[in-house]
Structures are given as structure tokens and as C-alpha cells.
Backbone:
């Protein structure tokens, strides 16, 4: 892997609540090189969206306790003040959310919203901003963009609205784009079109992309590297083929086994991971995955229940947080 464009090092995010402190992220470590696509996968509550919000500076610092390092092209984002982060958001880095209806203002024409995004970061005339808006709509495949630019969000289909969100995110040519479950709210055929569009635009623009998803099909289609999160931790990080063909963490094995696959003459039996994701207020002791892990008793000395495993390297660019990844963990040969 080349020099990282984005480096997240030991990121931790917690929120005080009436019920206790929610430890949403505790030990998020990964990197992504310029122009590459990193997929962050995991169940709800694994910390993937909070990690993205921390990168984008969207967490309220009066409420969230954020520590660690997030270095984007040499700048530690956690050291910037709110104004500096706001300046970077929408220009250097941008985000696409799952639900375009909640991100697009229903009372304003899409062209006005796109033009506004241009004018916030560039000193250009209204006409120039509108022309850029039309051009952006054209790039994301909106038909008759010079007419649709005057539509309101409700006049567009879900797939078209998501295209508008992609246009909005890319309109200032950001170096980093984060897409948080960008296809989840869409039907299957439109999902494939949006996935293809994002890959195509990324190839054209060279934007570094982080895609947050629970859909391993999207991961296989788009990612160069994969970061698997569980209970607020990165539990496995590796190039996409390593994750698919040589997964090392029992949770990654479980995720892959729970995906439907069409075999040549039958549908393989699904093997869901037993149990539920952990409470982020009362995390299990030791390895946070141990209550659901079928291999916990293979590790000698009951360490899975008592000792949190470290993130260790098992191959080039392949990190795993599991005692089994360490030599001698089973008390005999692995
Ligand atoms: Fe399972 Fe133990 Fe590895 Fe955790 S450390 S994933 S409980 S084997």
C-alpha cells in the first residue's frame, strides 16, 4: 500500500447519556491511500457511521468525547477548530447519506441547493454556479439537466434524488468522499446503477472513497480495502480479496457465512451469527465478540473473556484483533 491519504489512529468516541457512557468507537485504526476505496462494514451499532461522522467533523464536541488522530493529507482534523472543519467540509471532503430526502431541503429547487453548495466555497456568480449545477446533474446521469435543475426534490424518484446527492457531494471536487449506506434506501436495480455510477465517477475524478455498508455485495463490487468493525472496534482490516478468501477474524467468517450466495444448482444454507450486537454502555469483558464467538474456548487461559485482544498484523496490510492471530494462543499448534 502507498502512503495513506487518510489515516485514522486509535479513534475513540463516547457520549455521556442518562443511562451511562455510550462507547460508540473505541479503537478505530485504519488508513486509505489516495484514489482508493475503503469499505467499512459491520452491523448496526458497530461504530462505522460514528467513525465517518468523526472524520467529517459532524460530532458535537460539546457532547461527544473524541480522541485519537484523524490525519487527512497531513492535517490532523481533530486539531482544527469548528470553522476550519466547516471550510473543509463540502470542499476537501464530502459525504453522501443514506436518505436523500432528509438531506435535500424540500422547499428549495435542487438547482438552488447545488448552486448554494458551489457559492459557499467559491466566489462565482449565480449564473456560473447554476451552470456548474447543471453540469453536475449531467455528470450523474440526470436526463435533461437544464430542465430538472428547477425541480423540487419530491418531483424526483428515489434513485434520481440519490444521484442529486452524489452531484452535490462531488460539485466542489472533494479529495475525500464518504458514502454512508448510499444504496440502502433504494430498490435493487437502482442500487446497482448507483453503485456503478459512484465507481465510474471515482475512476474519473480520482477521489478517495470510503463506503460504509452492511452489504457485502457492494463491498465486493467497489472496495480495494475492507475494514470490519464490531462493538466500536476495528476487528479486521485487509485488502478485499484477503477478507473474502482468507478471513482471519471469527466475526468476519460469520459475516461472510451469513450472506446469501447463489450456487450453480442450489441456494447455500445461511449461517447467521448467533446472538445480538453488544450494548455499547455495558460492553462484554475481554474480547467484545466473545459472547457470540464459537471459537472462544480454543484460546487458552480463558483470555477471550478476560483480556481484550490487540490489533495485530498477520500478513502485509492485514490486521486482525483476535487472540487466535497470536502465536501460541491455543496453548498448542494453531
Ligand atoms: Fe473469538 Fe477470542 Fe478471537 Fe474474540 S479473541 S474473536 S472471542 S477467539
Residues:
Amino acid at each position: 500500500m502507498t502512503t495513506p491519504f487518510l489515516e485514522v489512529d486509535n479513534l475513540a468516541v463516547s457520549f455521556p447519556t442518562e443511562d451511562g457512557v455510550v462507547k460508540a468507537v473505541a479503537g478505530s485504526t485504519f488508513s486509505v491511500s489516495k484514489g482508493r476505496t475503503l469499505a467499512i462494514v459491520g452491523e448496526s451499532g458497530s461504530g462505522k457511521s460514528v467513525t465517518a461522522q468523526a472524520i467529517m467533523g459532524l460530532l458535537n464536541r460539546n457532547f461527544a468525547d473524541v480522541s485519537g488522530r484523524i490525519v487527512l493529507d497531513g492535517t490532523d482534523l481533530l486539531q482544527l477548530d469548528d470553522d476550519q472543519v466547516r471550510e473543509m467540509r463540502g470542499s476537501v471532503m464530502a459525504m453522501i447519506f443514506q436518505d436523500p430526502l432528509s438531506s435535500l431541503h424540500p422547499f428549495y429547487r435542487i438547482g438552488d441547493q447545488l448552486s448554494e453548495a458551489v457559492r459557499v466555497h467559491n466566489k462565482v456568480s449565480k449564473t456560473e454556479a447554476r451552470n456548474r449545477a447543471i453540469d453536475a446533474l449531467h455528470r450523474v446521469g440526470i436526463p435533461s439537466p437544464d430542465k430538472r435543475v428547477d425541480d423540487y426534490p419530491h418531483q424526483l424518484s428515489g434513485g434520481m434524488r440519490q444521484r442529486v446527492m452524489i452531484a452535490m457531494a462531488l460539485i466542489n471536487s472533494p479529495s475525500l468522499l464518504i458514502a454512508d449506506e448510499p444504496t440502502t434506501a433504494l430498490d435493487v436495480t437502482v442500487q446497482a446503477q448507483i453503485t456503478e455510477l459512484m465507481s465510474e465517477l471515482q475512476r474519473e475524478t480520482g477521489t478517495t472513497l470510503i463506503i460504509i455498508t452492511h452489504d457485502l455485495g457492494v463491498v465486493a463490487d467497489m472496495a480495494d480495502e475492507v475494514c470490519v468493525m464490531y462493538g466500536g472496534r476495528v476487528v479486521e482490516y485487509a485488502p478485499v480479496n484477503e477478507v473474502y478468501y482468507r478471513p482471519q477474524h471469527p466475526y468476519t467468517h460469520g459475516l461472510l457465512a451469513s450472506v446469501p450466495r447463489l450456487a450453480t444448482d442450489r441456494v447455500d444454507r445461511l449461517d447467521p451469527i448467533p446472538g445480538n450486537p453488544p450494548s455499547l454502555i455495558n460492553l462484554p469483558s475481554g474480547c467484545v465478540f466473545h459472547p457470540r464467538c464459537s471459537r472462544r474456548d480454543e484460546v487458552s487461559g480463558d483470555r477471550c473473556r478476560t483480556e481484550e485482544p490487540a490489533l495485530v498484523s498477520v500478513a502485509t496490510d492485514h490486521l486482525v484483533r483476535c487472540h487466535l492471530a497470536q502465536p501460541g494462543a491455543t496453548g498448542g499448534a494453531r
Residues 249-250, 287, 289-290, 293, 295-296, 299, 304, 309, 322-324 surround iron/sulfur cluster (CB under 6 Å).
